[in-house]
Fold this protein.
Amino acid sequence: GFLTERLLVGKAELSRALSVSEKTIERWNAAGRMPQPLRSLQRSGTGRLLWSAESITTWVRHGCPSRESAN
């Protein structure tokens, strides 16, 4: 699938892969309902959230548990 071809995925790619809106990704992340993202710094100094494709694949395979219950 799409995620197996990538090492890191951004919010837009992740929302397409999971068939949800980017706003849903933001809400799930803020609520701790998905794997912890990494932050990539841009030249402008702003950060872009990126997720490990492997962590997302594992998360989906395990039924999308919250970060708290996954630990």
